Amino acid sequence: MNRPLVAPSLLAADFANLQRDLELINQSEADYLHFDVMDGEFVPNISFGFPILEAVQKHCQKPLDVHLMIVNPDRYLDAFAEGGASVIHVHYEACTHLHRTLSHIRELGCQAGVALNPHTPVDGLEDVLEQIDVVLVMSVNPGFGGQSFIPHTLRKVAKLKQLVLANRSSALIEVDGGVGLNNASALLDAGADVLVAGNSVFKAHDPLEAIRQLKHSRQP
Ligand code: DX5
Ligand code: ZN
To answer: Which residues of the sequence carry a binding annotation for substrate (predicted)?
Structure first.
């Protein structure tokens, strides 16, 4: 049985010690670094943008999983691809022409991700599944780290997994928000492939061990 992919979220790192935290991620079993971009409009918070991306690119050896919580993401896709993104997630709720946006992300040589807010049903993805490499299921309302996991997400992930299988899609299922060792194995049982973890990693007593445990949270 495959190990889950683990994507620690930079949002919970110590920005006064960014290089130290990035080196920690480099040494860890993490598969990606999750990079949360918030614009203060799509979500009620502002995080970071290109200057931080440049600094991260210099020191981070893991592929970047960029989560755009911004309106009109099309305006910035090229810049994030040039900035080193491996995966770019746009929000379903922020895209009028989602098919075009996802195709453009792939043309830029990145993997195309679609993020769903907790209230957004999975059914709307059926007609664009061929354009999707990964679906990012939000298990909190986006905008802040350290929130509580919304339990309904487990059913949503299971439903999405059925949709993916029924359409013979190879899209991965990623879950973001309030994820930790307490819910990781239930999420994996429901069909998740990638776990994003902010506070449960960076605020842990031993972040390297926290990543290792998430990586091994499914019994082979
Ligand atoms: C929330 C962000 C998440 C956040 C997760 O809007 O998209 O990626 O960093 O942080 P935790 O794991 O602490 O909930
Ligand atoms: Zn995120």
So the answer is: 9, 67, 143-146, 176-178
Taking CA atoms, 34 is separated from 68, 119, 167, in Å, by 11, 22, 27
Ligand 1 within 6 A of CB of 184: no
Q: Give the type of residue at 217.
A: S
Exactly one of 21, 39, 65, 176 is catalytic; which is it?
176
Segment (H or E) for 68: strand 64-69
Give the tokens for residue 158.
């299971």
Mean pLDDT of 14-29: 98
With 0.95 as the threshold, say if the pTM is over it. yes
Whether 127 sits among the annotated catalytic residues: the reply is: no
3-class SS at 12? helix
Query: ipTM value of the model?
Result: 0.99
Measured from the Cα of 115, ligand 1's closest atom is 7
Q: Which residue in the block uniquely carries the two structure tokens 């492939």? A: 193
